[in-house]
Amino acid sequence: MPESGGYEMSDIESITSSTSSESLSTLKTASLGKEDFLEMMIAQLQNQDPLNPLDGTDFTAQLAQFSSLEQLINVNTRLETLELYQASLNNAQSVGLIGKEVVTLGNSIEADGTSAELSYILSGSAESVVVSIYDEDGSCVDTIEAGTQEAGENSVTWDCSGVTAGSYTFEVSAIDTYENAVSVDTTIVGKVTGVSFEDGVPILSVNGQDVSFSDIISVNAPGTES
């Protein structure tokens, strides 16, 4: 039976259980914080029925629940600090890539009147590989049949002497011996010419294409091969 003007043990358990199930990111905005929890416990002691005082076991359980709540809030605070530190570290590293040559996921290429290397990663061995090149209007300007290739990093050389110099994109399709599609990731090699930030996430400019910092595969000194 609830104490007059006080709080039942079930009330405390319900609140703590609800708080524990929330994500750490939302604990900071919870309506009930550790100070509120402590004030509620004090009010419970002050308003308990003198003839039916709070059981010592129940009070010990409530103290344990309060400790658990405080630890969850402290963990959340530390995770937020770690997240800010990681973000600042990534931002500093991304700025340091300006002027460096990187290999990254992407499909943009620059035709300069001679030839261009088109690279990609096959998830499995392919019986047939076809590379299609498109201009800025999305029109297919050339197709290369690369034939059979093994899983892993591969590339073909595109003779772009017959097209206007400028920016192009390429796509790679591949099938195995059973005519099942083979997954392909296209990659580009280029110099990082700038860095911008979107919602705190660094975006690199490589060959005129926006590339996420997390898509960087390797970093090389300018003029060296990966």
Describe the overall structure:
The radius of gyration is 30 Å and the shape is elongated. Strands 1, 3, 6, 8, 9, 10 and 11 form a seven-stranded antiparallel sheet that branches. Strands 2-7-4-5 form a four-stranded antiparallel sheet, with no helix packed on it. The chain has two domains: 9-95, no CATH class; 101-220, Immunoglobulin-like, CATH 2.60.40. It has helices spanning 9-21, 24-27, 34-46, 56-95; strands at 101-105, 108-111, 115-122, 128-134, 140-145, 152-159, 166-175, 184-198, 201-206, 209-212, 216-220. The chain starts with 8 loop residues before the first helix and ends in a 6-residue tail after the last strand. By secondary structure, the protein is of the alpha+beta class. Helix 3 runs antiparallel to helix 4.
CATH topology of the largest domain: Immunoglobulin-like
Strand content: 25-35%
Largest sheet: 7 strands, antiparallel
The average pLDDT score comes to 79
N- to C-terminal distance: 74 Å
Radius of gyration: 30 Å
* DSSP helix fraction: 25-40%
Question: What are the segments in which pLDDT stays under 50 over at least 5 consecutive residues?
Answer: 1-13, 15-30
Classified by CATH, the class of the largest domain is: Mainly Beta
